[in-house]
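Take a minute with the sequence and fold tokens given here and flag any structure token that looks odd. Thanks in advance.
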Amino acid sequence: MNKMRYGKRITRCRVCWAAGHNSVGCPEVDRLAEEWHAINNGTSLVKLRYDHAAAIREQRKRKDREAKKIAKKALSKPRRKSRCSFCSETGHNRRNCTELTKVQTLFAKANIAWKRKFASAIKEAGYGVGALVSLTIDSWGEDRKKKIPAIINSFPLPDMNFMCAYAGSWDFVTNTQLQITTTNGEDTFMNEGTDSFHCMVGDEEPRLFKKLRPWRDDLTPFELLHASYTPLPSEWVESEEDKSISWLLKNNSLSEFKWHSIMKHAETWAALY
């Protein structure tokens, strides 16, 4: 899932410039502030630096924050009831949310249904591992569109799920890469190279693969020359475990699923379970 691969931003302190914390929790503030006072009193020969001034500013901010905290506590209102971060209802949290359990079951059924259809479509079409295909590539010169033989090597099964067929927000689309070994005659730069295709199968459109291109999608990126009916492992097809789906459920809310039509997408596939 694309958003899952973005990673986290590195936090850096504006006082000591170390990574892993910010100025609010910087352990060097008090020491640097003491050095600043010693330098100004003439009791230290250390050269005045930027981090000394930054520490003094942060120390003043801490005093202001503490004063505001005390004032706010004196005027504090009764605490509001906590809300579930998934369904936004009160009286429970995400760990014991019944709505989350329902959505987990829905996504598991949708995922298995999609994998069943993808495995069935691959087998029926003959695009199993070892299949020989004719791959169309862009090249320079007179022959701009070359067709070369290629062999399907493998499917990235651990990364494939029903969000491969999702047509909504890019953040939640699962883009996986089908590995294909190609040969190109005398053009050695393509010899034993690889090309990547997005594996998918829609609930309505009869397409199996989509070429990953920034300017267009090719619904038929290659032609079948010799079929391979090797089935995909049933252990993968029927498994409910999926790290991308687990991440999706852990880091997003029900309202986000509805807003991005992920719930509708899951319901469509779960109906085929």
User: Anything to note?
Assistant: The chain is about 35% helix and 15% strand.
